[in-house]
Every structure is written in structure tokens, then in C-alpha cells.
Specification:
The complex is a heterodimer.
Chain A lengths: L2 H12 L5 H13 L2 H20 L5 H29 L2 H25 L12 E11 L12 E7 L2 E8 L5 H9 L2 E12 L2 E11 L2
Chain B lengths: L6 H19 L5 H17 L10 H19 L10 H8 L8 H13 L3 H12 L4 H8 L3 H27 L1
The chains are: A alpha+beta, B mainly alpha.
């Protein structure tokens, strides 16, 4: 097999549209000509570096920070489980807790039924209608927050960055794919409110900016 | 309180992240999925660091961890069916341990080599990677022939790689 075929296959791999038979063909070629393995590895590493350079969300710093956040979240989870186990470790204490909880529930039920108190509705901060324009991004692909592919809008204003988490998830696949690939200018209109310390935008419209 | 992240491991992440992400990319997945899986591999490596016998083998070791994760991914998720067979990744994995390329030097050489290209070539390479836009979509944006854009990109990749390697060799000698 000649060099030009190797380069064709390399192009297919780097462009992300290599087929299974082509990958088998390339693997066979690498087996025949092991010196090409290093060439392939260098191409992959080189263009990975260039991708990170061109796309700051994929930079080494962003990756390392994201990794540290995940590690800290894992460790906090472990810590929580350890603490919980320690608390519930003593059978006697556990029984006391259960009985205390049962008693508390009974007292609460009794009080509510006697006083006919209706629980007050949960109060949310009132929503307000706004128009937001900024970079549309995928929460999973670009912000690296969880695995759900949802939309968010990143707005830079007065030297600060605000993230509006868009709901409901009603974007068409092509639009969501765009947001997964790169920050894309968008304009949205809807009700915004603070929820759990985050800005939630119940979007009534969501469009790619012209 | 959670124990703080050990700084030497943090350095290992920075040193090996590009090599690991490039390795996972040989399976043909999307960038976001590649990054997610690479982070998971580093998390497992962090927990099992005591199992690593020789720190010089860290890169190969963490790629082995990723290989196991990839096998699990393929088993459990139908949407990963798009992943390519492992033959190419295994060829890369079977290579003897080689030191990771110094990221800063590679990037500096890359920037120099790309900067020396004609403006339209520079622009093409940047647009291709800045937004992760595929050659076929780039061709539409540029109102150009798709296969010509691909040919151009391939030629640029070969030219830039050659330039980077010459430059790295020159710096080290």
C-alpha cells in the first residue's frame, strides 16, 4: 500500500468520518509498516494541541480545572457517605432517630389537623420577562456540567459572565448540535428567575442570531 | 474536609492530557465525549496511583485505563456504536513508552508554523479547529468544493507537521 492511501485514511480519521472497514484497513497498514504508528500518534497529538489552542473551552487549563472539580465532587460524595455511615453506625442511635422522626411526624400531623393549617405555597422569586443575547452553549459539551445536553446562554456584561440555564429543553437537534460544537451567538426571550443560585430562563423563543 | 488535590498529580494531568485525548480520539468519538472519558480515566488513575510501578510509564498506564473504559462504554451504550474498532487504538497502545511531547514547545512550534502559512490557509486551519466545524461544512461556508477543501486541509496538516518536527528537532539539537 502506498503513502497516499495512508494519507487518505489519516484524513478520514482526523476529519472524524472514518468508516469501520477503513479503520480495519488502517490498522492493517500500521501492522505492515510500524513506522507509521508514530507518524499517526504525532498527528493525533499535534492536532489535539491545535484544537485546544483554537478552542479555549478545551484548553489544558480548562481540562485540568474541570478534572479537579470532578475529583472534589467525588471526594465530597465519599465524605458525605462516610459521615452518614458514622451517624447511623450505632444501632441504638439509629432506633432513637427513627422513633424521634416518627414522633415528630405524628406531632406535625396532629397539629396541622387540629389547627387546619394549610401549608403556605412555596414562594419563588417573581419571574420577569427579558431578552437575552449571548453565546449559546451546551451545558454538557461546553460547560462540562453533567451529561445532559441542555442549552445555556453565556453573557459577558460589565466585565462579568452570567450563565442563563435554558428550559424547557425544546431545541431542535441541529440547533443543539451547533451548541455542542462551539459557542454560537443566540437570542432568546423568556421569563428569568433565580433557582438554586442559578439563573433559569424559561424560554419562549430561542433563535440563532443572524 | 476533602483532602486537597495532590499537586504532582495535577502536573501529570496537564502533562499527559493531550496524549490521552489524542489516543481516545483515535476511536472516532466527539470532542466532548473524548474529554469526559479522559477525565474519568484520570480519576481512576488518581485513585489507583499506588498500583503504578514506574512513573515513566504513566502515559501508557493511563491510556490502558482509558482502553478499559472504552470497552465498557461500547458494551453498555448503543449510541457509542459509532465508535471505531479498537485495532488502531491498540496499535498505538502497543507502542513502547515514549516521553510525552512537551506541550508548550509543541504549541509554540505550531503557532510559528501556522503563522508562516498564507493568510487563507491559516484561516482555514483555525476555522476548522476553533469551532470543530467539519471540512464538508466549512466548504459550504466558503462556497467551495468539499473535496478541494479536504485536500487543502490534508496538505496543510502534512506541511505544518513537517514544519513542527523540524522546529522541535532544531530546538533540541
Amino acid at each position: 500500500m502506498n503513502r497516499s492511501r495512508y494519507e487518505e485514511l489519516l484524513d478520514r480519521l482526523l476529519e472524524g468520518d472514518m468508516t469501520e472497514p477503513e479503520s480495519v484497513e488502517l490498522a492493517a497498514l500500521l501492522k505492515q509498516q510500524p513506522e507509521l504508528i508514530d507518524d499517526l500518534r504525532r498527528h493525533l497529538v499535534l492536532w489535539e494541541h491545535w484544537s485546544q489552542h483554537c478552542f479555549p473551552e478545551r484548553s489544558a487549563d480548562a481540562f485540568a480545572e474541570s478534572w479537579k472539580t470532578r475529583l472534589a465532587a467525588e471526594q465530597e460524595g465519599d465524605q458525605f457517605a462516610t459521615t452518614l455511615r458514622a451517624r447511623l453506625g450505632s444501632e441504638r442511635r439509629r432506633r432513637v432517630l427513627v422513633w424521634a422522626a416518627v414522633a415528630a411526624c405524628l406531632i406535625l400531623l396532629l397539629t396541622v389537623s387540629l389547627l387546619r393549617i394549610r401549608p403556605e405555597p412555596v414562594r419563588y422569586q417573581p419571574a420577569r420577562m427579558i431578552t437575552v443575547s449571548g453565546d449559546g452553549v451546551c451545558v454538557a459539551c461546553i460547560l462540562h456540567e453533567g451529561r445532559d445536553h441542555k442549552a445555556a446562554i453565556r453573557v459577558h456584561e460589565d466585565g462579568q459572565t452570567h450563565i442563563y440555564y435554558v428550559s424547557p429543553k425544546s431545541l431542535t437537534d441541529p440547533v443543539q448540535n451547533r451548541l455542542c460544537q462551539a459557542p454560537t451567538p443566540v437570542i432568546a426571550r423568556g421569563e428569568v428567575r433565580q433557582q438554586g443560585g442559578r439563573l433559569a430562563l424559561a424560554a419562549q423563543s430561542f433563535e440563532l442570531a443572524k | 474536609m476533602p483532602s486537597p488535590v495532590r499537586s504532582p498529580f495535577d502536573s501529570l494531568v496537564r502533562e499527559h492530557q493531550a496524549g490521552l485525548r489524542a489516543f481516545i480520539r483515535s476511536l472516532g468519538g466527539e470532542a466532548s465525549w473524548v474529554d469526559d472519558l479522559a477525565q474519568e480515566a484520570f480519576l481512576i488513575a488518581y485513585r489507583r496511583l499506588d498500583d503504578l510501578e514506574d512513573e515513566a510509564d504513566f502515559g501508557k498506564w493511563v491510556r490502558g485505563i482509558a482502553r478499559h473504559l472504552l470497552a465498557n462504554e461500547r458494551r453498555k451504550e448503543a449510541r457509542r456504536a459509532r465508535l471505531l474498532p479498537f485495532a488502531i487504538a491498540d496499535s498505538l497502545l502497543d507502542q513502547p513508552s515514549t516521553p510525552e511531547l512537551d506541550s508548550e514547545r509543541v504549541l509554540s512550534a505550531l503557532q510559528h508554523c501556522v503563522a508562516s502559512l498564507p493568510p487563507e490557509s491559516r484561516d482555514l486551519l483555525t476555522r476548522r479547529y476553533a469551532g470543530g466545524v467539519r471540512a464538508s461544512d466549512l466548504a459550504k461556508e466558503l462556497r467551495a468544493n468539499a473535496s478541494a477543501v479536504r485536500q487543502n486541509l490534508l496538505r496543510l496538516r502534512l506541511t505544518v507537521k513537517h514544519c513542527v518536527e523540524r522546529r522541535l528537532a532544531g530546538v533540541s539539537s
